[in-house]
Amino acid sequence: MIENIKLEVAKLSDIDDILALQELYLASNLSEEEKAGGFVTTPFSIPQLTEVIGQEGLFLAKDNNKIIAYIFAGGWDFFNQWPIFNYMTTLFPDLTFLDFDITKTNSFQYGPICIDKAYRGKGLIKPLFEFMRIHIVKRYPLALTFINKTNIPSTKAHTEKLKWIIIADFQFNNNNYFILAYDMNQPVS
Fold first, then answer.
1. Which InterPro entries match (predicted)?
2. At what angle do helices 15-25 and 46-54 cross, to 10 degrees?
3. Tens-place pLDDT, residues 17-31
4. How many whole angstroms separate alpha carbon 175 and alpha carbon 150?
5. Calpha distance 44→183 (Å, rounded)
6. CA 142 to each of CA 13, 31, 104, 122, 124: distance values in angstroms, whole numbers, following the listed order
7. Nearest to residue 144, comparing CAs of 162, 161, 171, 167?
8. CB 16 within 8 A of CB 66
9. Residue 68 in contact with residue 81, Cβ under 8 Å?
């Protein structure tokens, strides 16, 4: 199913289709039952998408020119417009991962990632992540992200399929999150 999928760095002409995919899986649009399949929590606006596309930080998977998945990858300066990311960066001095001194300059915020449910479990996450990794490792040696502890499919996909490491957890706005880290110099195996 994923043989014919094309991986691309997002262009401005992709914005409408990115927003359409986002709407399908935004937590605020889903029932509790639907959330069990995975969800994204951060909604992006057209100006925000325009900015991250300009920074070459949005990566897509397309099937017959239809966007079926995306991964965001941005510096902390981009993500600081959301309070949860500002809070997370205050935790950096207390975090440890391998030999990294975790800072805003040597790390970036990975995610959200969103995969259309028809393509989940088909092996798409690895090549899409590897495509993003190859583009971003030139700028950042370390990837960090957080996952809501209730988003079990995302936690499993990242720790089991991509081998991310849970390095801490935190609470924000009455939600509990894991902080995960990945050494961007390591190809996905």
1. Acyl_CoA_acyltransferase
2. 120
3. 999 988 888 767 767
4. 9
5. 26
6. 29, 34, 10, 26, 22
7. 167
8. no
9. no
Nearest to 18 by CA among 64, 70, 78: 70
DSSP output for the chain: --TT-EEEE--GGGHHHHHHHHHHHBGGGS-HHHHTT--B-----HHHHHHHHHTT-EEEEEETTEEEEEEEEE-HHHHTTSHHHHHHHHTGGG--BTTB---TTTEEEEEEEEE-GGGTTTT-HHHHHHHHHHHHTTT-SEEEEEEETT-HHHHHIIIIIS--EEEEEEEETTEEEEEEEEETTS---
pLDDT digits (tens, 9 = 90+) for 132-182: 999 999 999 999 999 999 888 889 999 999 999 999 999 999 999 999 999
Write the single-letter amino acid at 61. Answer: A
Closest by CA to 18, choosing from 93, 64, 71, is: 71
Which two structure tokens, joined as six digits, stand for 30?
């889903």
